[in-house]
Amino acid sequence: MKVNVSILLVLLLCFTGAGALFAADQAAGAPKVQVDGRDIVFPDAKPYTVGESVYIPVRSAAENMGILVTWDAKNKSVQIGEGASAVTFKPENAAGGGKPFLKDGRVYVDPAFIQDKLGAEAVWNQQKSAVSITTKSKNLLKGVQLFKQSMVKLTGEKVIYVDPYKVDGEPKDGDIIFITHTHGDHFSLNEIAKVAKKDATIVFPAGELDKLADTAFEKVGSAPNQEGTVKGISYKAVPAYNTKTNNHPKEKAWVGYIIKVNGASYYMAGDTDLIPEMKDIHADVAFLPMGGTYTMAYEEAAQAANLIHPHIVVPYHYADVVGTREDALKFIDAIEPGITSILMKE
Predict the structure, then answer these.
(1) How far apart are CA 143 and CA 177, in angstroms?
(2) CA 164 from chain center: how many Å?
(3) Which residue, 174, 215, 221, 233, shows the most beta carbons closer than 10 Å to its own?
(4) Which residues contact 280 (CB under 8 A, 6 or more apart)?
């Protein structure tokens, strides 16, 4: 199919090992890019425009489409996707003919390639300086948003929040609220009230349900290794604790959650160190804390990701209380091949 649009999408690829990131032009007022309605967070390289064309680093674009991108340094070829549906090509050394090409260590493709080969629609709105990419196949990150600290929103059959924190506005659209533990950056009745519908259900550590006594919400207790179903959404509570400090003692029975929604499973680790129970975690997408001090530092979090081996891993619990964006970049660089690792917040 031919697409008559003057837009180029820059696919940022790894030439130096799993998760490595290229340096990139830092243009002021970079265009906004969305995949399935969610803003992309770019780890390093920023999108920029030249004339009527827009250029986007694709390690972010493709992976936010839920597609694994691999660079074969020996053959100097790119593979996008896996199995029979994978697209493999050798980029040209210069632009021309609408073919993927290399420029300054980056691989560029046009929208015809995105639509013909990757099955997504790419629309460049020059007036608004915004690119909208819409996937047509399953995207594990569709309906998934990460906010401050460890606050995650999953939108699908139901609207689910995990550990709401410093919520902007009062959306009050949450059907189910999962709380991992009772520290103030994970649990606040005021924050729950901002996101919860009147008939919402709160899934909460069973040993401290008394902290919800003054609320009218339906309450469900959770404990490590306990499974349940709420409003048609199945989940499993899993252990979350520290091994080196007493910030999150094991005896508190605080938890992470594996939540099944939209035909996929999402592991919200909560505040935890690298623990033996992680070998039994199976999830399509894993959110792992890596701020250090109260949880794993980025080195341990990367070990946890490589142990669990989800399709996609997202670092969280950094840059709001402890931990830095630089730690998150180091985390991404330490992830093994075969796991897609992305940032979902600055």
Answers:
(1) 16
(2) 16
(3) 174
(4) none
The single residue listed with the structure tokens 């917040």 is: 345
Report how far apart, in Å, the C-alpha atoms of 111 and of each of 100, 103, 131, 264 are: 11, 17, 11, 28
Taking only the tens of pLDDT, the chain with its 346 residues reads: 444 444 444 444 444 333 333 333 334 488 999 999 999 998 887 787 777 777 777 778 889 999 999 988 899 999 999 888 899 989 888 876 777 887 777 787 777 777 788 889 999 899 999 999 999 888 999 999 999 999 999 999 999 999 999 999 999 999 999 999 999 999 999 999 999 999 999 999 999 999 999 999 999 999 999 999 999 999 999 999 999 899 999 999 999 999 999 999 999 999 999 999 999 999 999 999 998 888 999 999 999 999 999 999 999 999 888 889 999 999 999 999 999 999 998 8
From CA 268, how far away is CA 257, in angstroms rounded?
5
Task: Give the contacts of 112 (CB within 8 A, at least 6 positions apart).
Answer: 1, 2, 3, 98
The pTM assigned to this predicted structure is 0.85
Q: Residue 40 and residue 146: Cα distance in Å, rounded?
A: 11
Contact (CB, 8 A) for 270 and 150:
yes
Chain length of the chain: 346
Question: Phi/psi of residue 229, each to 5°?
Answer: -135, 130
H-helix or E-strand spanning residue 305: helix 298-308
Q: Where are the beta strands (DSSP E) in 37-191?
A: 38-39, 48-50, 53-55, 69-72, 77-80, 87-89, 101-103, 106-109, 120-125, 130-135, 144-146, 152-155, 159-162, 174-178
Closest by CA to 189, choosing from 207, 211, 170, is 211
HSE-CB at 242 with a 13 A cutoff on CA atoms is 15
β-pair partners for 338? none
Pairing of strands 130-135, 32-35: parallel
